[in-house]
Design a protein that fits this description.
Radius of gyration: 33 Å
Strand content: 35-45%
Strand order of the largest sheet: 1-20-19-18-17
Shape: globular
CATH class of the largest domain: Mainly Beta
Oligomer: single chain
Number of strands: 23
Helix content: 10-25%
Number of helices: 3
Structural class: alpha+beta
């Protein structure tokens, strides 16, 4: 009996130790799981109101970054014919060239700077509504609105050299040193060969991740496409590689009440003096052309 009793006590003690060890192991596993969960939670933590793309630090943050408003100052202003329904504006060799709209009133003009006096002009046929204007190798290239027809002129004489056709409406036009860029009022820009006027590619333009339409007069400035947005006071600055609007100017109030005649239409017209880094803007039926400088 003694042996049997002695033999039972060690077995009971061993069982208790086994249960104790099992409890310890279970507690350790629970604690480890809690630590792992905490670590995962911290890795996925994002501060309140911070966009996912920026918090994750991936490339999407660049694509989704919101367009920033930049400041500007008015350097000077100059007289502008308040009867000019400005559709295109080009600076070249100390002179401004202008395309104006409205059927029966559309013109191509050379303007003396800074007086704004008309040095030379020709009228378009009454069925045409003049639109964007660009300069390519001594040739002025002018669009029309809904006629799907453009005109090429000699820079000096304004003699018409040729006509060309395009499939879209014609709104704005600029030249990036290689291709013409055309706007048609949509959120797309169209690249054209400057000799054949055949389409090369299409660029979809977005602002804050969404298409932005009503793109109008265009100007190529230091590697960016600047565009008036019709019926607004905005000029957007477009990355020609991505189509994304990185920044914009709001020119609301640039035309002082004392300069208003009561006939003014929307802001439209951008020209760039690349040699002196000067930017000129105006509007349809505006009595002033403004030289502006970006300050931020």
């Amino acid at each position: 009996m003694t042996k049997k009793s002695d033999n039972k006590r060690p077995r009971a003690s061993t069982a208790r130790r086994g249960r104790f060890r099992a409890s310890i192991v279970a507690l350790v596993m629970v604690a480890a799981a809690a630590v792992i969960f905490l670590i995962i939670s911290l890795l996925h933590y994002e501060p309140a109101n911070q966009p996912n793309a920026i918090a994750n630090g991936n490339n999407q943050s660049t694509r989704d970054a919101r367009a920033q408003q930049v400041s500007y100052e008015v350097v000077s202003s100059y007289p502008h014919d308040p009867t000019s329904f400005t559709q295109g504006l080009v600076w070249h060799d100390g002179t401004l060239y202008e395309s104006t709209g409205l059927k029966g009133e559309s013109k191509l003009r050379r303007l003396e700077f800074p007086s704004g006096r008309v040095l030379k002009e020709i009228n378009l046929a009454s069925e045409f509504f003049g639109e964007g204007l660009a300069l390519v190798d001594g040739r002025l290239i002018q669009l029309t609105w809904q006629s799907h027809k453009g005109f090429v002129y000699d820079l000096n004489t304004f003699r018409q050299l040729q006509e060309f056709a395009y499939d879209t409406e014609g709104w704005g036009l600029t030249y990036d040193g290689k291709n013409l860029i055309l706007s048609d009022g949509s959120s797309d820009l169209f690249y054209l060969d400057p000799q054949t006027f055949k389409p090369i590619r299409k660029l979809a333009v977005t602002m804050n991740g969404k298409p932005i339409s009503e793109l109008n007069e265009l100007e190529f400035i230091d590697g960016e496409i600047w565009a008036n947005v019709w019926q607004t006071d905005l000029i957007v600055r477009i990355n020609p590689s991505t189509g994304r609007v990185a920044s914009f100017l709001n020119l609301k109030g640039i035309l002082a009440p004392s300069d208003k005649t009561g006939r003014e239409d929307v802001l439209n017209g951008i020209a760039y003096d690349a040699e002196r880094k000067r930017i000129f803007v105006t509007g349809k039926l505006w009595p002033r052309i403004f030289e502006i400088r970006v300050t931020k």
